[in-house]
Amino acid sequence: MKLILAGVLAGLLAATAAKADEMVFTSWGGTTQEAQTKSWAEPFAASSGIKVLQDGPTDYGKLKAMVDAKNVTWDVVDVEMDFAIKAAKDGLLEPIDFAAVPKADLDPRFSNEHAVGSFYYSFVLAWNKGAVSGEPTSWADMFDTKKFPGKRTFYKWSAPGVIEIALLADGVPADKLYPLDLDRAFKKLDTIKSDIVWWGGGAESQQLIASGEAAFGQLWNGRVFALEKDGADVGVSWNQNLTAADVLVVPKGAKNKDSAMKFLATATSPSGQAKFAEASGYAPINTKAKAEMAADVVKGLPDAHVDGQINLDMNYWAEHRDEIATRWYAWQTK
Amino acid sequence: MQGNSLRRRSIAGLPAGSGGALPALTLVGLFFIVPVVALLLRSVTDPEPGLQNYAALFGSGTYVRVFLNTFLVAAVVTVVTIIVAFPVAWMLAIMPPALGSIVFGIIILSMWTNLLTRTYAWMVLLQRTGVINRALMGLGIIHEPLPLINNLTGVTIGMVYIMLPFMILPLVGTLRAIDAMTLRAAALCGASPLQAFRRILLPLSLPGIAAGGLMVFVMSLGYFVTPALLGGTSNMMLAEMIAQTVQSLLNWGLGSAAAFVLLVVTMALYAIQLRMVGARRLGGGL
């Protein structure tokens, strides 16, 4: 029975797989993927003659299903770094061919055997100026409903960020965050639970803040950057900004592995990274990229805000992903 | 409705061994039985053979809570849908046919609009800065926005709206079949309108209510989009929980187990319903 099903599915999937001079790039959709298409896929197609088909959004369940069924239709996928570390351990990823992808200038924080950096970002505190009187300056302010009344919005899924924010707000020093004290974090989160509105995707976070539906939020800096570009009346605090990264991976058994590696070379090149950073407001993972960027763009990037910046520990998260997620959803549904 | 007549035919065709049912049976086998068996297998083999996924499922306060919540939401939605649908169906049943078909068309039309679009429309209406709250505050009726979204209220409003046609359609069929003379007879014998409703109309329309109610309840149990967008995390429903388990935790075994339990419960409900109302009357109501 299982075999029949697998056969039928394989046939259906094969019908949609890319041809030899094509490859498939999968990311999260929206403004981020548009910037990746413009900055990476289009120049790559022009120089290599390999057509890059876009798919999305990234779905870890789908990725695993493809690898398990040995029928992988995605060649390069943009994923969160903690997932990449875990997926490599579970045997879901191809090793990166560093003969094809120049490694020397890549920020070592965001590359490993099975992944190269895509971009890195910060969680920042953003607010709607029309809905907030005064200026929140730290994560503790987001937990102070007396001083700053109104709804606050946080990232809905179990991922690096919210737990750390709660601990910082509760007075844990930045260098003592790990190992995470989950009991303490959830206790702190309990104090504002009824004031939380969750956002599940970047566009939703922008809509909530821009409309004033939520007065404050923990947002990806690129999404705030896009709101400011659109002229929305938002404030942003970079104090205690939390960095995390997206990485590019090649699923195990990808059909166009060689093309994928070449694509990675373009995506992580100084010019590919510079173009993407200018379009998205996210920081480049190639150390030479900044030389190719306009000075005013460089000023707005996460790495221009290293004062009080905190690096989320991706290795810790990769190791405790399931355990934290189980606690997270148990708390959320309570 | 077509799906149902198809099902009835294939069930009726089975004992007679009719060759005409073969395509339908193949379809059901390939796209229903096979995936369900695969699901069941996965729940007892992934990551290793055994019942550990079911133990984890029932041992986890989270899943039990989400299960109970799913049934609560489905029950609330079903009851509210019946209450809203009944007057509409009654109106449709006694309307002149020409006018009735226009109103019918409007109801059906809403089913053709994309589900996601309709749910987003409700978000715009219900949120704190939404149309309803702004209007009520502008009129001075309320001073603080009403919490209409990210809670049970939001889910109920959004889902009742989507489920209404599935309740109205079977109800109209049942109500039309009721002889209007019975109501007139009740009135002549001195029954008040309320008495006539309670003792004549309501009992006679029970098969339609049961058929529609069951369909609404069962559909509600597995709903994903509307609760995910209009509900809050504290009233998460099972479909969303399963999606998280599979997508985020990559725990296919546990997700399959949860899906299988939901399926079994649904089938059991259907069986009970068949027994209570009787298959023929249920079918006739549709």
Could you give a quick summary of the protein structure above?
Chain B: It is found in: Cell membrane. Chain A is built from 13 helices and 9 strands.
Key phrases:
heterodimer; A: 334 residues; alpha/beta; D-Maltodextrin-Binding Protein, domain 2; nine-stranded mixed sheet; 13 helices; 9 strands; 18% strand; B: 286 residues; mainly alpha; 2 domains; disordered C terminus; SBP (chain A)
CATH class of the largest domain in chain B: Mainly Alpha
What portion of the residues of chain A fall into strands of 2 or more residues? 15-25%
Task: Tell me the CATH architecture of the largest domain in chain A.
Answer: 3-Layer(aba) Sandwich
Structural class by helix and strand composition of chain B: mainly alpha
How far apart the termini of chain A lie comes to 39 Å
C-alpha-based Rg of chain B, rounded: 22 Å
Name the CATH homologous superfamily of the largest domain in chain B.
MetI-like
What amount of the residues of chain B lies in strands? under 5%
Q: Domains counted in the coordinates of chain A: how many?
A: 2
Order of helices and strands of chain A: HEHEHEHEHEHHEHEHEHHHEH
Which chains make the largest contact?
Answer: A-B, 29 and 30 residues
Secondary-structure-based class of chain A equals: alpha/beta
Overall mean confidence score, pLDDT of chain B: 86
Q: State the total count of DSSP E strands of chain A.
A: 9
Rough outline of chain A: globular
SSE string of chain B:
HHHHHHHHHHHHHH
Structural notes for this entry:
- The complex is a heterodimer of chains A (334) and B (286).
- In chain A, 41% of the residues lie in helices and 18% in strands.
- With 334 residues, chain A is α/β, with parallel strands linked by helices.
- Chain A folds into two domains: 177 residues, 3-Layer(aba) Sandwich (D-Maltodextrin-Binding Protein, domain 2); 151 residues, 3-Layer(aba) Sandwich (D-Maltodextrin-Binding Protein, domain 2), CATH 3.40.190.10.
- In chain A, helix 2 crosses helix 10.
- The longest helix of chain A has 19 residues.
- Chain A is globular.
- The model of chain A has no long low-confidence stretch (mean pLDDT 91).
- Chain B folds into two domains: 45 residues, no CATH class; 226 residues, MetI-like (MetI-like fold), CATH 1.10.3720.
- Chain B is built from 14 helices and no strands.
- The longest helix of chain B is centred in the first third of the chain and has 34 residues.
- At the A-B interface, helix 1, helix 3 and helix 13 of A face helix 2, helix 4 and helix 12 of B.
- Chain B: It is found in: Cell membrane.
- Chain B: This is ABC transporter permease.
